[in-house]
Amino acid sequence: MIEQDVVCPFCGCLCDDLEIETDGARIVRVKNGCSLAEATFMNDTRLPAPIRRTEAGWEEISYDEAISETAEILREADRPLLYGWSSTHGETQSIGVHIAELIGAVIDNTSTVCHGPSILAIQEVGHPGCTLGQVKNRADVIIYWGCNPVEAHPRHMSRYTTFATGFFVPEAQRERTVIVVDTRRTDTTNIADEFVQIEHGGDYAVLSALRAIVRGKAHVIPASVAGVAKEQLVRIAEICKNAKFGAIFFGLGLTMSRGKYKNVRNAIELTDELSRHTKFVISPLRGHGNVYGSNEVFTWMTGYPFAVDFARGIAFYNPGETTAVDILRRGECDAALIVASDPGANFPRAAAAHLAKIPTVVIDPHVNATTALSRIHIPCTAAGIDAAGTAYRMDGIPIRLKKVIDRGYPDDAEILRKIYDRLDGGMGP
Amino acid sequence: MRVILESKVRKKPSLPIEAEAIIPRNFLKGTDLVVFEGNKERTLSELFWIFVEGTAVSPENIEVVLKGDTSRIKRVGEYMDTGTILIEGDIGMHCGNFMSGGTIEIRGSADAWLGREMRGGTIVCRGNAGHYCATGYRGEKKGMQGGTVEVFGNAGDFCAEYLAGGTVHIHGHTGDFPGVEMRGGELLIEGDATRPCGNMKNGSCVILGTVHDLLPTFEKSGTHLLPERNLEMDVYTGDVANRGKGTMMVASRALRR
Ligand code: SF4
User: Fold this and answer.
1) Per residue in A97-124, pLDDT tens?
2) Residue A192 · residue A182 · CB < 8 Å
3) What CATH code would you report for A116-284?
4) Which of A153, A285, A385, A395 to mutate for ligand 1's pocket (most ligand atoms within 8 Å of CB)?
5) What is the pTM of this model?
6) What domain count does chain B have?
7) pLDDT tens, position by position, A288-315
8) Antiparallel, parallel or unpaired: β B63-67 and B84-87
9) End-to-end alpha carbon distance in chain B
10) Which CATH architecture has domain A47-112+289-423?
């Protein structure tokens, strides 16, 4: 069977034009997707059944047993941490928030290690953004700052920017100027019309210098800023001011390098400054398929997009204090539930090590590095492959993920609902 | 009156305690106060040995002394308006949040957000202070607005972010971005500083040590002699990335771009 218009759940682009051929419960061909999409749909090796760690090694247990034991672990905890959420659908995320409120937990999503700083910056100065459709149809100057979409979001350029034909930019490749800012050469910098190579940690200074130049204060700027010649900065400021419509996309090179949210804030304020001359927008290139959705769901339900602490029964938010990495690094939490993510692979060592010291339960379709740190791993459906649900694209557009096949696994929302039911009526701060 | 709170040994010593109830005024009515350990409500006596010496008729005569392992206790002195708190060791985050009067002395080091959004009063920290010393809450446009914070050791990153009033005096070094987004008040750093005063709008910052990575958007406007220290200072105006009416003075001998 061939299914049209399938959404790829892998990265924040959520490309919704895939064609997938299935043979019963097996996917046999993926069309239109990039290599990451192909790997997502074709190399989908699952954990067959729930497992529990024993002295002698792993043993298979029933779903019912795994769910009861997870509820028990969460009930006992004085400071449980619920982390992950970015690779599953909104329905699961919302049950996660309900559980956090019920048991006085901290709930955090993967923004904490990707675009959390972007959110902090947006909370300080706002977000002059737009949908990807606007960029596709209008932008004649594109800036990629601290990101490598050719490898991380392979279809971003062909669907929305450099190579995409737009209504007001019919000859995209000729009409769009692409500026790439990075600390090193990448496949994306090779496509750029203008490559700005800055020294490590120099983003803030370069952004400040650009703001000053756009404000007419070029005379203050020294001959070179973080390895970038003043002439190049002046030239870039001119290109931007003369754009019909400019769009800045930024990645972890900006959010996770020295200065973090202050870098992003500076980039937003540059966007603001440029909008006094023309129309400029800025947006983060979100990584996980539904990480934006986790921010949305958390915000509707708690008022805050990530790092929400329910220990006192009300939502409290303070990144640096209530963020998963910090709570783990300080050894605060005494139980953890990890859903649809892999902190074992990408958290700092000290934080990941604490997961191994406390009872950690993983709910994820696949075996990953966190499995090795956990006590129980419960397999489930993968959103967008064998489960339908809502996800948010990187520009905040909700898109319905489709269920393409049925592999007989329970939905993670169903597993969490059962955990919630077993906890209900019990505790709370 | 003196109230001595000595922390008891806990089964899970890493669990944070939230103790905004620990302010001198609250002890006028006794010691029957509530704090939180993780997600559990506890009475003060579950977590501390409590000793009360003497009596008091008004809160300004109350001194609260914290002893033992107090490094995980957050929000001590929150909304404090009078009296004294003496912390013999280290203290957890948010000590002196929104404080408007009185004195807090910390003999050890303080964790992050010391004196957050302080309005008045005095905080003296004999050890080091963590990140966000004398700043505001996330997204808050005004950080500390009045009072004095003095740290004898070093301070972490983002010290005095959004400083809007009052005085912050760091005897040691600061981390990255001290005085970032400053819009008023005075910041004095006797040690070194990295990228000070980014995006500053107003206020004044004096740095006696070495400045690392001075931002390119500060305009040198002259020199100034600090007679009490016999130091010539370079005077900068900025940050010209915005309206830039702040003053930053850096000891001339120590400047590094
Ligand atoms: S660009 Fe992202 S969403 Fe689109 S097909 Fe590739 S991995 Fe999937």
Assistant:
1) 999 999 999 999 999 999 999 999 999 9
2) no
3) 3.40.228.10
4) A153
5) 0.94
6) 1
7) 999 999 999 999 999 999 999 999 999 9
8) parallel
9) 53
10) 3-Layer(aba) Sandwich (3.40)
